[in-house]
Amino acid sequence: MMLRELDIPKILPSQLALLYKDFTDEEIRRAMFSLNGAKTPGLDSFSAEFFKKHWNTVGQIVTLAAKRFLKTGFLLKEWNHSILCLVNRLKHAMPDLISNTQHVFLTGRQMTDNILLSHEAYEFPPHWIHMIHQCISTVSYSVLLNGDMSQQFKPTRELRQEDPLSSYLFLFCMNILSRMLDIGYALKMFEGIKLPRRGPSISHLFFEDDALLFFRATKSCCQTVTNILHRFCKVSG
Question: How confident is the model over 193-216, as pLDDT tens digits?
C-alpha cells in the first residue's frame, strides 16, 4: 500500500499562501511569549522568562535571528526557539489534513526522513520541509552535573516528546496509519464494530500515547490488521 494510494488530503492554496507569507515581528513575539517561562534554559543559561521580561531590550535581536532562519531555512544549532513560529502556522492547516480518528493535540478535539516523506505527500512547500528537517537534525544536548557541562551529544530520536513541533509531526505520521486502516476497512479486508448496533462502524481511535483498534476476533481479520501494521512500520521507519 503506497502513499499515493491513501488519498491523502493536499494542503489548500489558501493555506499554502499563509505558509509562504513572510513572518511578522508580532508572530515571532507571540511565539516567544507562548513558551513556558520556567522551561529548562539553553546553553546561555537564559530561560524563556528572561527573554519575555527583557523583550524591549533583546526582542529585536531575537526577531532578526528568527527571521534569518525562516528566510534562509538554516538554523543555528545553539538556538532553536524559532520552531514555534512553524507550529503556529501549521495549526491552521491541521484540521483539514488530519483524520477525525486522532483525538489528541488538535484544537477542538479531546485529547526524520520518513517524517519528511509524509510532508511531501501532503505537498508542503520544499522550503518548509527543509526548515522542519533543520529543526530535527540540529537537536543536541549537554548534561549539567555538579556545575560541570558535558560534551554535546545528539539524541537517537532527535525530537523529544515535549518539543512543540513533535506533536504535529506525530499527527502527520499517524494519519498515514489511519488512512491505511480506513482503506483496509473500506475494501472489507477486516470488519470493525458498531457502538451502538445502528451506529457507524469504528475500526480505530488514536490518542496521545495509545491506539485502539476495533475488529472482529477472527484469524483473517487479525492477519489483515497485522499486515497493515507491518507495512506502516516499514513506511514510518
Answer: 887 777 778 888 887 667 889 888
Output the pTM of the full model.
Answer: 0.63
CA dist list (Å): 139 to 133, 155, 183, 212: 10, 7, 36, 32
* Integer Cα distance of 112 and 120 in angstroms: 12
Q: Pick from 107, 91, 236, 92: which is nearest to 168 by CA?
A: 91
Grid cell, residue 222, equals 487479525
**Single-letter amino acid, residue 25:** D
Block residue for cell numbers 507495512: 231
Angstrom CA distances, 88 to 5, 42, 182, 237, stand at 30, 22, 29, 27
One DSSP character per residue, 163-214 reads STTHHHHHHHHHHHHHHHHHHHHHTTSS--EESSTTS-EE-EEE-SS-EEE-
**Backbone φ, ψ for residue 204 (5° rounding):** -165, 155
Torsional sign, CA 29, 34, 36, 41: negative
**What is the Cα–Cα distance from 56 to 60, expressed in whole angstroms?**
8
